[in-house]
Amino acid sequence: MLLYLRLLKESFAFAINALRNNKLRTLLSLLGVTIGIFSIIAVLAAVDSLDNKISTDLRGLDKNTIYLMKFSFGPSDIPAWKRDQFPNVKYDEYLYLKGSVTNTAEVAYQIFTKTENIKYDSKIVSTVTIVPVSHELIDIQGLEFEKGRFYNESESNSGAKVVVLGNDIATNLFEDVEPIGKDVRLYGQRFRVIGVLKKKGAGLFGDSTDSAAYIPVNFVRQKFGDNNDSLSNVIIFKPEDGVDMEAYKAEISQRLRAYRGIKAGEMDNFFINVFSGFTDLIDGIIGSMKLGGWVISGFSLLVGGFGIANIMFVSVKERTHLIGIQKSLGAKNRFILFQFLFEAIILSVIGGLVGLLMVWGIAVGLTKVLDFEFVLSMGNVFLGAGLAGIIGLISGILPAISASRLDPVEAIRTGM
Predict the structure, then answer these.
(1) What residue stretches are annotated with the MacB-like periplasmic core domain (predicted)?
(2) What is the DSSP letter of 199?
(3) Containing domain of residue 287, as a range?
(4) Which has the minimum average pLDDT: 263-272, 316-325, 344-353?
(5) How far apart are CA 353 and CA 384, in angstroms?
């Protein structure tokens, strides 16, 4: 054991000496490993950060949540021209399905509309995401409040002029003023502020709840009507725990087909989108990003491996005389083998650590500049260091074997 510890120490000294004496050559040789490790770990760190952000943004949503609408979350076999003819889901369909579909915890009705301006006194916040939705959304999405409350069933059904503000909207409008109970102007009318949501941070898929305002869906229905083509509607279902999802979807489809009078054999003119399908799509995209990162970075690692092998062959050539002397003094082949193998691994790990340091620096910088947390996990750090070590091992094995097999007499003669 002590012999191998001495060998490791000596190899490390040789590696450091090689770095000092051949700075440019070593730098160019390690550049491939550095770039390769940087590329792989940067991609993995970005994907982990993305995954973490998705989990945070979607934490309040049940994967079994269903979105019934005229659009599909994913690709569809139905031609686009045919999908364009699908009707919007209607409020009366929401009421019918709410009262007839079994095994349902909550059903909500939401309208997608364009952004608006909200005004308080002389202050205006532009392009606010307006979310007209029925009162059940609070139990489906699990919105968290900094102060106040969500509107109740009575306010929702009557289309009361009340509003729940996202954190950024409330901060920009009121600053240090207490917002609850104040009136803001929206759609040219006064809305009473009854709640302010907790700050969530930037949303992955666009604006988060911080820049949104929630109002009763029936206000928008009363203002724009139920047949406005500029609006898109959705019915959101939250099934009870343990429900057979295929049977649940089939029941929704059967009841809506019957309500719309769709005959047997005719295709559905609506889509039942399960939220888990959306998350599976995102997982697939993330997996493809990881694979793409590995493929692209693999070429850099390959170049880096050749660079390490090259510098080790040169090192063997330069130290042939020394190898001969060591062998003549009794050094065994494995001693010479491990000496060069350790040196290759150490050089490669140094390159890998530089790549990891670059990823860490960029992650810290971007986290400070952007409203997004970049995560460099210890798992990725160990993976990067391990990959660098493996590259060094593979790249150094042939030069190390060639060094260990040198004849001591020929080696001394060659070096003279």
Answers:
(1) 26-254
(2) P
(3) 2-57+281-415
(4) 316-325
(5) 8
